[in-house]
Amino acid sequence: MNGIAAALLALALACVAHGAQAQGGRYVSMGSSYAAGPGVGVPDKASGGCGRSMSNYARTVAQRHGFDLVDVACSGATTDNILEQGQHGFPAQVEAVTRDTRLVSVLIGGNDIEYVGNLFGLSCRAAGKAACKITGEADVERRLAALPEKLDRVVAEVRRRAPAARIVLVGYLPAEPAGGATCAALAMTDADARRMRDTSARLARVFEDTARRNGIDLVRAAALAAGHDACSADAYVTGRQPAQVPGWPEPVAYHPTQAGMDRVAAAFDAILER
User: 114-135 in b/e burial notation, b at 16+ Cβ within 10 A?
Assistant: First the structure.
């Protein structure tokens, strides 16, 4: 074998080795219920109150790419639960990020601004019920303003613990139609639907800016959900009164469907394959 052929063979072997490394390693999935997947597929009984699904996007991505998944996403989580406060007997999520971690996905922030909480609260009010919990617009504004710094802290802590890890930020699939009109599945007034659509759009912009500012990847879930809101025939997010999925204790309203989880997983795949 001449020198040029040997060099080409060595380069090819190096590329194969690099590809093999990229297809495996420790993957930590962190986030709230939109990452955990309550009400989707088969429940992971070991996750307890966190309500993780065996077919959430992290499980699908890990299986396709040969990652060793550590799924610590937990329903109800905020950025504080990632960085400082555990839930349901589990430690703060970031404790799962070790120096040998190669991939980290983060879907967080919706509970920091009471996004899902307000979907429930506004639906409650539209149904004429009393004592509906609704976070006021001024308070949501304040929480949105504080969210970028919180997300930056999450990214910085992941990088401190796992300098070689690739970080993928995952956005929230909006429940509301792009036009902001309501429907039976959304179960709120047109004005409240427009309010929540505006919140979804602003949350998506926070994620866009955070990804750009920190130089990390982003699954643009808001764009993926176009035409697949809770009012559509092929919804990526459940409405106010979804059907109960066998194995789960109750239906889970205003959360990703299996189709939504699968679409996020496909977009995640595309990022990893770039």
Answer: bbbbbbbbbbbbbeeeeeeebe
Provide the domain count of the chain. 1
Q: Quote the tokens at residue 100.
A: 């040998």
Report the percentage of the chain scoring pLDDT > 70.
91
Number of Cβ atoms within 10 Å of the Cβ of 153: 15
Kind and range of the H or E run holding 104: strand 101-107
**Residue 132 domain-assigned (yes or no):** yes
Q: What is the pLDDT of residues 137-161, one digit of tens each?
A: 999 999 999 999 999 999 999 999 9
Domain that holds residue 95: 26-272
The domain spanning residue 209 has which CATH number? 3.40.50.1110
206 with 197: CB under 8 angstroms?
Answer: no
pLDDT tens for residues 6-34? Answer: 443 344 333 333 333 346 799 999 999 99
- Decide if 7 is inside a domain: no
For residues 35 and 180, give the distance between their C-alpha atoms in angstroms, rounded to a whole number: 24
Could you tell me how far CA 141 lies from the centroid of its own chain?
21
Flag whether 210 is in a domain. yes
Mean pLDDT of the chain: 91
User: In this structure, is residue 84 part of a structural domain?
Assistant: yes
Token pair 């709230």: residue: 32
pTM recorded for the entire structure: 0.89
Dihedral, CA atoms, 68, 24, 60, 273, nearest 10 degrees?
A: 160
Distance CA(66)–CA(182), nearest Å, equals 41
CB 152 within 8 A of CB 211: no
